[in-house]
Amino acid sequence: MHLTVITSITGVLVLVYILELLRRQQLREKYAAIWLAIGVVVAPLGFFPTILDSTARRLGIASGVSLVLFAGFVLVLMVSLHLSWEASRLEAETRTLAEDVAMMRAHLAEHHGYPIARSNSSNDAGKATDSGVTA
Q1: Beta partners for 128?
Q2: 0.70 exceeded by the pTM?
Q3: Residues of 90-122 as b/e, b for ≥16 C-beta within 10 angstroms?
Q4: Angle, nearest 10°, between helix axes 29-47 and 50-58?
Q5: CA atoms of 53 and 45, how far apart (whole Å)
Q6: Beta partners for residue 134, in sequence order
Q7: Are the C-beta atoms of 38 and 14 separated by less than 8 Å?
């Protein structure tokens, strides 16, 4: 098969797969928008490969392949940066929530006599303790 046919089929399959993930609610809309945009850009390039070469020439790049490689590198870099930012944000949110739960447990223990779960080691986190309360 020609590269243009493979590129076209891949672009269309990516779009269909993203829409299916959205339909099943397995992909949030904010992430789907990025991937849909990528699919919308990739699919026409497969159907009309001359667009890529003419765009590369206008940008002063030697060939369309070089443009694709550079764009792919930038895309991977941006996705990695975004995922690192999301992980950092979620880590901070998890820490805040854990602190809130600890303060609520301390308040309940102090004012209402509820037992506070104590784990013997970090491996026991999340397991039921003797009092029936989970850590």
Answers
A1: 134
A2: no
A3: eeeeeeeeeeeeeeebeeeeeeeeeeebeeeee
A4: 100
A5: 10
A6: 128
A7: yes
pLDDT digits (tens, 9 = 90+) for 18-74: 899 999 999 888 888 888 888 788 778 777 878 888 989 999 998 888 888 898 899
Query: Which token pair is 75?
Result: 């895309």
* Full 3-state SS string of 71-90: HHHHHHHHHHHHHHHHHHHH
Four-CA torsion 47, 49, 50, 53, nearest 10 degrees: 150
Q: If you count them, how many residues does the chain have?
A: 135
HEC states along the chain? CCHHHHHHHHHHHHHHHHHHHHHCCCCCHHHHHHHHHHHHHHHHHHHCCHHHHHHHHHCCCCCHHHHHHHHHHHHHHHHHHHHHHHHHHHHHHHHHHHHHHHHHHHHHHHHHCCCCCCCCCHHHCCCECCCCCEC
